[in-house]
TrEMBL record:
Residue span(s) of domain Carbohydrate kinase FGGY C-terminal: 250-440
One example GO MF annotation: glycerol kinase activity
GO cellular component assignments: cytosol
UniProt cross-references to InterPro entries, sorted A to Z: ATPase_NBD, FGGY_C, FGGY_N, Rhamnulokinase
Segments forming domain Carbohydrate kinase FGGY N-terminal: 6-239
Family indicated by similarity: Belongs to the FGGY kinase family.
Designated name of the protein: Rhamnulokinase
Keywords attached to this entry: ATP-binding, Disulfide bond, Kinase, Nucleotide-binding, Rhamnose metabolism, Transferase
GO biological process: glycerol metabolic process; rhamnose catabolic process
Amino acid sequence: MSTDTYLAVDLGATSGRVILGRVGERSVTTATVARFANEPLAWPDGLHWNLPAIYRHVLDGIRRAVADAGEVRSIGIDSWGVDYGLVGPGGRLLGLPYHYRDARTRGLAAELDEAALYRRTGVPNQEINTLTQLLAEQRAGTLDPSARLGFVADLLAHLLTGRLAAERTLASTSQLFDPAGHWSDEAIAAHGLPRRLFPDPLGPGDVVGELRAGVVDELGLGAPVPVTAVAAHDTASAVAAIPAAGPGFAYVSCGTWALVGVEVDRPIRTEASRAAGFTNELGAGGAVRYQKNVTALWILSECLRAWSHGGERPDLTELLAAAAGQPGYVSLADPDAPELTRPGDMPAKVARFCRRTGQPVPVTPAQIVRCVVDSLALAFAHYADEAARLSGSPAGVVHLVGGGANNTLLCRLTADAAGRPVVAGPAEATALGNLLVQARGGRTADELAAVRALSAASARTVRYEPRADPAVAAARERFAALLGAAA
Ligand code: LRH
């Protein structure tokens, strides 16, 4: 039986990884060859991504992987959505990409005509959107008219191959892309943005190009390796690897963010959907990810950062065990309350949210962690139900993939809150989706089904059955009432 080796470069907002995958007929094995921190730079003009450092780590990872594996059939790159860098004539990078949490977009999204944009792009107004960020640059006069835009994974592919393209799943996070599969000329023109800013789209499964000669030489490779456009939005890669045999599930792709939704054949651009804040983003195999972006494990990592002493972070596993021993649903928070989406003393902000909304104020780390985990579980249940209701899709089970799948308390509470089984795992869904789209393709529904079958055959999952808890119904009602509680 033949086994082929592929390389996934998986770039997340807090860390990046380079992962080798050996893909056989019926199973896949993975090995992490490099892992590195992705630390933003707070520069005088705002919060940026350190793209040169990321590039250096990616090159080192490729070098190591090829040394380990001997031969790699292709490389795929995925990254978080919405953020971009600008590329000038001759392929020159025009500055460092901004971080979506940079303050320059504050208040800007609210000025946009959301109804018109939603009809065109299927994406509601959010401060982090590419459109909002571009408008901030346009107003500041820093948008170079000669520039073209590259999403983070596309920028890396450009640096490695010399070709700049816009991978569709990433482009669909921008609020400037029609989920039918092309840039929305109307949305671009309506905001006075230059059309040449937006490179030609290509899809999951297409080849971007081969490693350019300079990279092949620098890494001492014998021959160029192709770079394949995977479902380059990290969430799209994660959703591609959901180990489901057929339709009829809701998903939570849970890391820094949680993306909670269902897969649909066609975008849903109704007013009700817009009002509920659902996005229509593209997935592998032509699927539309109908989902809500929820601020998730970032709240916990910001708490850990606030509780660190002398560079030492408290142990999350221990804190979660302590939180599991606390009474549930005492205080709840809306994870997307504006202050909880911004950096800075997170435990104090959670406590302030509870005080302002007339709830008991959590004080100890265990109480605060319990409040956050209860709230995330209730949010996942709430939005999974909303996605099923608004799309008319059944959602018999909830697949929870990504790092959150390792959080037993969160998975158990999500099953209880949703009143449906949660199938947790794979935790490494993003890298797996990246590797498997390279191996099996990402254009058609059949290719996506083949990706999922391989993931199901290889991935470790844990099933959590919902427990009958009489407190759940009231907690869900309290949570729903909190949504949108003013900052
Ligand atoms: C998750 C994610 C999400 C959003 C956000 C910016 O990592 O990609 O889907 O696009 O980051």
